[in-house]
Write a structure and sequence with these properties.
Elements: H1 5-20, H2 26-34, E1 55-56, E2 62-63, H3 66-76, E3 83-87, H4 93-100, E4 104-109, H5 112-124, E5 131-134, E6 147-152, H6 161-165, E7 167-177, E8 182-189, E9 195-203
Length: 213
């Protein structure tokens, strides 16, 4: 569990790369510069940790590309104390970014192997989500709703209705929608039944799996 000056230097280079791709939120860039991404990956892949690309992790999932993490987080507009629901804990890297920003994070993972690994690993790095849950992201987390923000870190073929209903008024849902290629989509809840929709560029995510258990 080492984080060296070399790693910190590589992170600063990574920050420059994603800045040049258009990420402007200084707090998001600062979070990326602080989080030791190499510790979220198998030690054999250290050389890849600070390249701006996705990489395979356990359970046929991936650790998202840093630019994608930054892009989704920027759309979420997180402020300290915001209650955020994350669908797809995965490696915990996005969770760590949200924690760095001061969010109160509830995160759901449906792959048991990943859930177990990440729930042990994150606290060791000092990142404590309010709650890590093993369960079905499609249904959200009704008992903790409403949320200021909901972030989905896997490609969804459609927008799950429970997620929209669990947003507070003024809240934001960031979700990649589509089958093979996803369109990054932002919903802002302006009223009980009033949602404003914005579509951004195309991305590729692993699929959001419904609970088949």
């Amino acid at each position: 569990m080492k984080d060296t000056f070399k790693h910190k230097g590589l992170r600063l280079q990574l920050v420059e790369v994603i800045k040049n791709k258009g990420i402007k939120d200084e707090k998001v860039l600062d979070a990326i510069s602080k989080i030791p991404r190499h510790l979220f990956m198998d030690s054999g892949f250290l050389d890849h940790a600070y390249q701006d690309k996705a990489f395979p992790i356990a359970a046929d999932q991936t650790i998202s590309q840093p630019y994608t993490v930054a892009y989704q987080t920027e759309l979420l507009q997180v402020k300290p104390g915001d209650k955020i629901l994350e669908i797809g804990t995965g490696s915990g890297y996005q969770t760590a970014v949200l924690c760095e920003l001061g969010a109160v994070v509830f995160s759901i993972e449906r792959q048991r192997e990943l859930y177990k690994r990440t729930s042990k690993f994150l606290p060791k790095l000092g990142y404590r989500a309010k709650k890590l849950i093993f369960g079905d992201g499609y249904i959200g987390l009704k008992e903790e709703a409403p949320f200021k923000g909901i972030i989905v870190t896997a490609g969804a073929p459609f927008v799950p209705k429970p997620l929209l209903s669990q947003l507070e008024i003024g809240g934001r849902l960031v979700i990649p929608v589509g089958d093979d290629v996803q369109v990054m989509t932002l919903f802002i809840r302006n009223g009980v039944k009033d949602f404003e929709k914005h579509e951004f560029g195309e991305f590729r995510f692993v699929p959001l799996l419904e609970d088949k258990n």
